[in-house]
Amino acid sequence: MDAMTDIPSRRQDEIAAALRAGRELGPEYDDALAASLVDRIDHTIDERVRHHVAEQLGEVSRSRRGMSGNTARFVLALVILGLSVPLTAMAATLVGGEAVVFLWAGMIIFYVVVARGLSR
């Protein structure tokens, strides 16, 4: 059973017990009883709000993590692809064919390392 579904029945039992105690103690304790009930109700509301906020933040975090990671990987791939054409031309012209192989190997390794880092 979820802890949040158990709260209403537990709080209801506490409030009923406080009301019974108030009847036994008499009217001179009404103010103390009212303050106690307000504190309990405030505490219950705070618990529920924290629980719902945590749920919402978890859902937002999960959805952002998946979307932003994919978007970042896509942008990274576009940047590497955009840089690969001029860098390949420069490497082939200035150094030779062997430099192109090392350049592409370096770009692929760079992409894999960064993409893995983004997925964490």
* Radius of gyration from CA coordinates: 32 Å
If you average the pLDDT, what whole number results?
80
Contiguous uncertain segments of 5+ residues = none
Instruction: Tell me about the largest β-sheet.
Output: none
E-strand count? 0
- The shape is rod-shaped
How far is the first residue's CA from the last residue's CA? Answer: 32 Å
Q: Quickly count the domains.
A: 1
Share of helix, binned? over 70%
Individual helix count: 3
* Class from helix and strand fractions: mainly alpha
Work out the strand percent. Answer: under 5%
Give helix and strand order, one letter per element, not per position: HHH
Task: Characterize the structure shown.
The structure is a single chain. Helix content is 92%, strand content 0%. The chain is an all-alpha fold and 120 residues long. It has one domain. Helix 1 packs antiparallel against helix 2 (30-94) and helix 2 runs antiparallel to helix 3. The longest helix has 65 residues, at 30-94. It is rod-shaped and about 100 Å long.
